[in-house]
TrEMBL record:
Protein name: Extracellular solute-binding protein
Source organism of this protein record: Paenibacillus radicis (ex Xue et al. 2023)
Superkingdom field: Bacteria
Pfam families: SBP_bac_1
Signal sequence coordinates: 1-24
Lineage of the organism: Bacteria, Bacillati, Bacillota, Bacilli, Bacillales
Keywords tagged on the record: Cell membrane, Lipoprotein, Membrane, Palmitate, Signal
Length: 543
């Protein structure tokens, strides 16, 4: 048995244990939460630093892999030390290795050795089988309604003022379960198609906006610029072809589950028009316009292809992609210019059907309070610091006069983080800020980290889609029985779809078998999955 198979077996065993041990090891509900339905008192202001000698424990990813360049633990960083000083609460952080967080989470829950706070994805598509409602029912985490009302005045105020946010953070029966990571409107789109503008200018070609224009450009890159892989894309086991719906959305469908114009949940690979998506990629693959090695291209390999001139276009991040390319090449090749492009359509002037879009809440970074917590009130007070004015500045900008300076309210990052010869601004900031986690991303931060006008223009272009309308919310809550059925059906469906899509694109499967591919998806339970998601979406819309 290879390493990957052993890990998979270990995770499957742990998941099985969760359902048995959490029932056997039933915990007593927190007395604070027993009063949630009847206690209507408003939260009182919390004075920081809190006068306490109690410590808290916190489990979750470090938040940004860049911090690992400097520290192995959030608590050791300038940010962690400053947070400790300001809140008066000593928090002991435990970080699972990057890429092993799901496995470590399963083992932790199965062993019933839970820390006070757990940062992970507690939503429907997250790490706990059955999602947040099941985790509450199993006494793994506690509902937060009364704790937020009485001990988290900053978050409580936010939820009262923003009903859309409140809706995202509840179960269908109205229970809050996480302290969230909240995005501002400027940080909800940060990934999309980009292209070598200097090549376009040299060839006398406009920035492509339609599929036909893209094909013309990619062919020119191959024939006249010698690009071995004109369009390079990232492929991963979790996301498949990581295109953020670029090219696919042109056919008014999507990579996976989405919401149609009629408000109904649909599955892209079962749409009749998805065949046109496959035919497009099959053609581009055969002609060498799509990277022949796309199925084994990770982010590092993708970056190398762009920076070496093997590729002239990709779909990637605003900072980790576009900014890093411009930064890396400004000394090596002053003519190098990368720009964002609109999500392509079939007809010029159309609004793209779908594209990259993140909802206001980032599902993977919510923090739940575990049922093992001896002082949930203190945990809520500590977490709430991030949603106040002082906490917002610490989490977003860091420490005054170290990572940022303020001049009559105008904030600027210091040269210490902005002009380091080895690390980027984002990497340097990882020591002083949280970047990912339970807090609100400040719009000023989102704009301050952009170094190039190409980035601001890219955000505008990538945001001009109907993605919000068509993206299936991550916040729908299937019932416990529905979740069990989804767990059985969706894994097989996704694996089959990825396997067949690769075969179709690479010519290993005759396109004449496409109808059989759709029929087999139905045999794997797709109609039942759609029924469950639709019922969950309908309940969500009624919250």
């Amino acid at each position: 048995m290879n390493k990957q198979s052993k890990r998979m077996l270990q995770c499957m065993t742990a998941v099985t244990l969760i359902s048995t041990l959490t029932i056997a090891c039933s915990k007593q509900a927190s007395p604070v939460e027993d009063k949630a339905a009847t206690n209507k008192s408003q939260s009182a202001a919390v004075t920081y630093p809190i006068n306490t000698k109690q410590t808290l424990s916190y489990w979750g990813l470090m938040g940004n892999s860049a911090m690992s360049n400097f520290f192995s633990n959030i608590g050791e960083s300038p940010f962690g030390k400053e947070l400790n000083k300001r809140t008066g609460v000593q928090v002991n952080f435990t970080h699972p290795p990057q890429g092993q967080d799901r496995e470590q989470f399963n083992l932790m829950v199965a062993s019933n050795e839970l820390p006070d706070m757990i940062e992970t994805n507690w939503f429907n598509n997250g790490v706990y089988p059955g999602g947040s409602q099941k985790a509450i029912n199993d006494k793994v985490i506690i509902p937060l309604n009364d704790l937020i009302k009485k001990n988290a005045p900053n978050l409580n105020k936010l939820l009262e003022e923003d009903k859309e946010l409140a809706k995202m953070l509840q179960t269908d029966d109205g229970k809050y379960f996480v302290f969230p990571m909240v995005r501002n409107s400027f940080s909800q789109v940060f990934n999309g198609p980009m292209i070598r503008k200097d090549w376009l200018d040299e060839l006398g070609l406009p920035v492509p906006t339609t599929i036909d224009e893209w094909e013309t450009v990619l062919r020119a890159f191959k024939e006249k610029k010698g690009a071995a892989a004109p369009l390079s894309i990232i492929y991963s086991n979790t996301a498949g072809m990581d295109l953020k719906e670029a090219f696919i959305g042109a056919y008014k469908t999507a990579t996976g589950f989405y919401v149609g114009d009629d408000g109904k949940v649909k599955y892209g690979p079962s749409d009749k028009q998805y065949k046109d998506v496959i035919l497009l990629f099959r053609k581009w693959y055969n002609e060498g316009l799509l990277d022949k090695d796309f199925a084994v291209t990770d982010p590092k390999a993708n970056n190398n292809k762009i920076l070496s001139g093997q590729s002239g276009a990709t779909v990637y991040l605003l900072s980790g992609g576009l900014q890093s390319y411009l930064e890396a090449m400004k000394a090596k090749d002053p003519k190098f210019n990368m720009v964002g492009t609109p999500f392509p359509t079939l007809t010029k002037g159309e609004t793209p059907f779908i594209g990259h879009y993140e909802f206001k809440v980032e599902p993977s970074r919510g923090v739940a309070i575990s049922a093992n917590t001896k002082n949930p009130e203190l945990a809520a007070q500590w977490l709430d610091y991030a949603y106040g004015k002082d906490g917002n500045e610490l989490f977003n900008f860091g420490i005054p006069n170290e990572s940022y300076a303020s001049n009559n309210g105008n904030l600027t990052f210091t040269d210490k983080v902005n002009k380091d010869p080895k690390y980027t601004t984002i990497q340097m900031l990882s020591q002083y800020t949280r970047q990912n986690g339970p807090f609100m991303i400040d719009e000023k931060y989102s704009k301050m980290i952009l170094k190039y006008p190409q980035q601001e223009e890219a955000v505008k272009l990538w945001s001009a889609t109907d993605a919000k309308k068509h993206t299936l919310p991550s916040f729908i809550t299937p019932t416990e029985s529905e979740s069990k059925e989804l767990a059985k059906l969706t894994t097989a469906l996704k694996s089959y779809k990825e396997e067949m899509q690769l075969k179709f694109i690479m010519g290993k499967e005759p396109i004449e078998n496409y109808d059989k591919f759709v029929a087999q998806q139905n045999q794997l339970g797709l109609p039942k999955i759609l029924e469950i998601y639709q019922a969950a979406l309908d309940r969500y819309n009624k919250r």
